[in-house]
Amino acid sequence: MVDLxxxxxxxxxxxxxxxxxxxxxxADRAAAEQGRRSNPASDVAxxxxxDWLRRVVTYLTxxxxxxxFLDVGxxxxxxPNVHEVAQGIDPGARIVYIDHDPIVLAHARALLTSNxxxxxxxxxxxxxxxxxxxxxxxxxxxxxxPVALLLVAIAHFVGxxxxxxxxxxxxxxxxxxxxYLALSHLTGDFLPEQWKKVEAIYAARGVTMQxxxxxxxxxxxxxxxxxxxxxxxxxxxxxxxxxxFADRSDELVSVYGAVARKP
Length: 263
Ligand SMILES: C[S@@+](CC[C@H](N)C(=O)[O-])C[C@H]1O[C@@H](n2cnc3c(N)ncnc32)[C@H](O)[C@@H]1O
Hints:
Blueprint lengths: L10 H8 L7 H13 L2 H23 L4 E5 L9 H8 L4 E6 L2 H5 L12 E6 L5 H8 L10 E5 L11 H10 L6 E7 L5 H12 L10 H5 L6 E2 L5 E2 L16 H4 L1 E7 L2
The structure holds S-adenosylmethionine (SAM).
């Protein structure tokens, strides 16, 4: 029996609640509502981030011909999931999903409904163990061909003590030339006091959250070639006609994102 620890908020379930999902518990909803009262961006950032993810996977599959995705910190299934977007364009796309939260594991079946021409896999693993992630990903993905590494709204749950920049470097180093890194990250650049309050709400419940300034987020892409328009607020990154957040203010979005190619 998996212990879902329903008495403490989990980032995956708080995010699910803020996106309008149903896979959350009272402690998650209480933390989300407290965050909402402290910070107006709490409502907009999750949806804007999710829309960005859809546009990024569409761009990588359609415009760059990427057919393999390693999605670390995938979260609770939220349609359209990465495999639905990628396989909608390239039915042969292969996706490995990774998360460390038992609630995501409990729902992983919904992440495994692959188009028969492609493949999906789910691994219960921690971002802070890149060697294990890489060894398992290689069972589904061909590391002789380009892979897109998706680190979407996960790195702000990893404090400096765990050296997230080093971990990203280790993951990227293992990818072949022509691979991509897509990473989004909460920032306190626009509403510093409000994000401090949200960090404190998580910290009081034993969960690390660390928003970072733009320069520190940019460092995740060191040695890589940023795709146009570079590191931007996610709603300003190649908005399309389906985007619901293009007219929002920067402070309400408060999530930076970029896509970069490994030379
Ligand atoms: C805000 S959700 C983002 C979900 C999805 N990537 C998206 O952007 O829509 C963050 C996810 O990262 C996961 N996560 C946080 N720290 C992690 C770690 N150290 N290892 C694996 N997953 C982690 C959480 O469980 C959660 O599902």
